[in-house]
Amino acid sequence: MTRAAPPIHGAAAPTEPRAGPRAAACPETLVAGRTRLIASYDGVREDLRKARSARGPTATQIARMLSVTDQPHGLLLDLLSSSPFLSTGADHAVKRRRAVHILARLGRLWPQERLATEYRRRLTGLMERGGGDLYHDLSLPFLKAVIADAIGLDAAQMEQVFKPVSALFATAQRDDMRLQDFQSIAAQIEGLRPIIDSVPVEPLEGMSPQSSLLLMAQSLIPPLLVPANSLTYAQLHLAEHPALAARLTAGQIRICDYIHESLRHFGALDRTAPGRAKDDLTLPRGEEIAQGALYTCSIARANRDPARFDRPDVLDPERALRSEITFGTGPHRCPAAGFSLILLETALRLQLELCRIEVVGEVSIARTAIGPRYQTAPVRLHPLG
């Protein structure tokens, strides 16, 4: 579902919650369908640090769902069983090591200097055209190019891989997984065999080259959609608040502080994958979740909890407390967090240096199972200097 975004970025309503949830009341838990939703900052933070649930679908669950069909689905099950983001188990440490290895490779291939060169090239190209869609013509293609290069795909191959991998991650966030969803994703992933058979990949620990390529895509594409949308949000907010942009440019406010605050405010990652409580849980404010109950953590609501953040619906980069948990924390801290923050600061610093952004049309956002995603963000770019 796509909605128009009346003052998501409008200067006329500076305290509007924009893309994130309102913080007027933040109960410890909410009910969302069949799932309990931990909504308080302390409850979410404690749950992520203690890893008290078995999160996400396991390969066994999906195999059981797909066993009624005769279509091939081996690649999907292999991916599910190897990904730390989509399943947990006794070998979680091995899965985590693979993810860290993938992100370390990304960091080696794309140091900050190379990120700056590539973003400058793409931003300059959009400036020469006068503007375009800030998300679809700049932020998303930039991230796709970085990921494709890290995996070893060309642009066309990346487009083919992007859709099913994104769909798999979004489906895994739902508490009402359906057979037809996974049948469709399994068929799309099986259709990638010509690509994964042709691209040379150094195998990851205990994996085949083909499965390694898929895991690399699964480990990079969904996490980096968060900075792609967050960068767009941060830039559009500054377009409507030029005084704030001027203070950032002058060094009166640190860009890293603005990035953390815009991450908290935007809520690009809505919630964690549903999981079942390993034991009876007592939350910090006293509410209880029974062993085996299905629940999830709302990252976006936790980042707007008024018990933690003063004036939580206001984007204030000078607030004293900087403790947003957009990328999780503890065992559930996203391995891509460090790279994402470097990428966001690099891109935003360059944009402030090179051009001023003017919003020239309707901005719209789709509400997905993962979080808000930009649909339209039409802008005009005005060169500086």
Largest sheet: 5 strands, mixed
- The number of distinct β-strands equals 13
The span between the termini is 41 Å
Treating each run of at least 4 consecutive H or I residues as one helix, how many helices?
A: 14
Topology of this protein?
Layout: E1 2-4, E2 29-32, E3 35-38, H1 41-50, E4 53-55, H2 59-66, H3 74-82, H4 92-109, H5 112-128, E5 131-133, H6 135-151, H7 155-172, H8 179-190, H9 193-198, H10 209-240, H11 242-249, H12 255-266, E6 275-277, E7 281-282, E8 288-289, E9 294-297, H13 299-302, H14 337-354, E10 355-359, E11 364-367, E12 372-376, E13 378-383
Parallel strand pairs: 3-9
Antiparallel strand pairs: 1-11, 2-3, 4-6, 5-13, 6-9, 7-8, 10-13, 11-12
Helix pairs in contact: 2-3, 3-10, 5-6, 5-14, 6-7, 6-10, 7-8, 7-10, 10-12, 10-14
Throw out a few tags for this protein.
single chain, 385 residues, alpha+beta, Cytochrome p450, 5-stranded mixed beta sheet, 3-stranded antiparallel beta sheet, 49% helix, 12% strand, globular
Q: What do these coordinates show?
A:
The protein has 385 residues and is α+β, with helices and mostly antiparallel strands. It has a single domain, classed as Cytochrome P450 (Cytochrome p450). The protein is 49% helix and 12% strand. It has 14 helices and 13 strands. The chain has a five-stranded mixed sheet with strand order 2-3-9-6-4, covered by helices on one side. Helix 3 crosses helix 10. The two termini are 41 Å apart. The N terminus is likely disordered.
